Amino acid sequence: MKTPQLLILLLTILVHVAEPFPTERGRREKHASWDDVNVVAHGLLQLGQGLKEHVDKSKIQMRDVNAKLKAFNSTVAEVQRKQQEQDEALKAKSEEVEERERLAAQLAEEVKVKVEEVKQQSEGVHSRMDRLEEKVDKVLREPELDSNYSDQTGVPFIQRIMAAQNRRIDQLVEKIQQQQDKLEKQSLHLQALQSKVAKKRVKSHRRRDEETALRGEAEHSDTKSGLAKDCHDLFVGGQRVSGVYTIQPENSQPFNVLCEMTSEGGWTVIQKRLDGSQSFNQLWESYKKGFGSLNGEFWLGLKSIHSLSKQGQYLLQVELSDWAGREQVARYRITVDGEEEKFALHLEHESSSGVQEEIITTGASGVPFSTADRDNDLAADVNCAELLSGGWWFRSCGESNLNGKYPRRPNLLGKQQSRRQGMFWTTTKGQNVSLKTVLLKIAPVTIQQ
Asked: How many helices (H) and strands (E) does the chain have?
């Protein structure tokens, strides 16, 4: 029975009991109802007992609730303590990663200094050898002198000089070899440190992702990882040093890129040619995934270029130089479709760049990417990639091929065979220009603002 109902019944019984007794005439009738009073009293006792039991149960339930609240508060305090410990551990790991990066940069600088010293020593050895050869030639060409000087100008004297020079040369060569061994060891150590730093950075990002997910603070995948979506995003975040960074475009997996930080902002380099150390005569899968070294020549990869360009409006800057030292720069609005559209390229020339020459043209409908094993070019009855080598957005086989073979000596590609062997572009006057260096880089259009 619920408490309000018990209270109402108790009040009703008390009202009936408290009524005044009747007059003397009716007292005898009232005295006759004492049995009813006993029944009522017994009922009141049962009611009081029920109320007591209800109160006791309520107290027990309150004690249980208080115990559970204390346990919950203890659990929350423990979770907060563990979270604080994790934050401190993450901070310590971040500081450790930064320290390792600093050490790696310091080692790289030391390696550069050692390389310069070795070069200078090597140049000194060559210079001394040249001077020694000149002296020997001079002595051999001189006529025979008096006998007073025969001991100093004779063959034994020359042999002694040459033996001494040879010993010095051997000593220098040995020192150079020792320096080279040290440099190789330091290079291996530096690579190991860079690998450890990269692994630490990945683990740090993963741990940060997990903590962000637990706290419920992340709303998008890019904020979960804490990585920038491109090099200009790094520039906006305060980064001003060019180099290799890890980025994660929207709805994409993280990957490493070469960032070129300028006064305008951060550019993401998608292709670099400078010395012919990397072969660009690759097939479709290689051009899709990317190849080469970010510290040398490389192709970033069509998949990665597409993931960057689909984030919004982007600029492509093309920087060329030929063997005569002439440089050419052009800017375009760029869009690269996905693999289902064969990574078709769409360009719109930027008149604000002030460049008269158009290095690459695509037309309104775009140009699909083509390789030797995927003939997607717009030329009829010929595979331009197979003819010219490499992979490119070919409209025809005669406009340009910035992924062609690196030329071994300067020429203007006047012959058909030479043109097929090198990377080139065609001027508006129809001249095929052999290229020495090529750099392709992209950035959001906001970099111009």
From this structure: 11, 11
> 230-245 as b/e, with b when 16 or more CB fall inside 10 Å?
bbbbbbeeebeeeeeb
How far is Cα 291 from Cα 278, in angstroms, rounded to an integer? Answer: 9
Distance of CA 65 to the CA centre of its chain: 51
Which among 186, 188, 197 is positioned nearest to 113, based on CA atoms? 186
**Between these two residues, 380 and 258, which has the higher pLDDT value?**
258
Nearest residue to 316 via CA among 305, 327, 302: 305
Indicate the pTM of the whole model: 0.51
As given in the structure block, the two tokens for residue 181 are 């061994």
Share of the chain above pLDDT 90, in %: 30
Report residue 372 CA to chain centroid gap: 30
Q: What is the pLDDT of residues 139-178, one digit of tens each?
A: 655 544 444 444 445 567 777 777 777 787 878 877 787 7
| CA–CA gap between residue 409 and residue 429 (Å, rounded) | 23
For tokens 């060019």, the residue is: 242
Q: Which of 137-141, 203-207, 329-333 has the highest mean pLDDT?
A: 329-333
Q: What are phi and psi of 220, to 5 degrees?
A: -130, 160
Least confident of 169-178, 311-320, 325-334, 374-383: 169-178
Q: Phi and psi at residue 41, in whole multiples of 5°?
A: -65, -40
- Provide the token pair at 204: 């740090």
**Side chain identity at residue 221, one-letter code:** S
Q: Which of 266, 267, 228 is nearest to 247 (CA)?
A: 228
Which single residue is written with the structure tokens 């508006």?
428
Looking from the CA of 283 toward its CB, the CA atoms found within 13 Å total: 3
Total Cβ atoms within 10 A of residue 257: 27
**Amino acid of residue 196:** K
> For residue 230, what are its two tokens?
């491109």
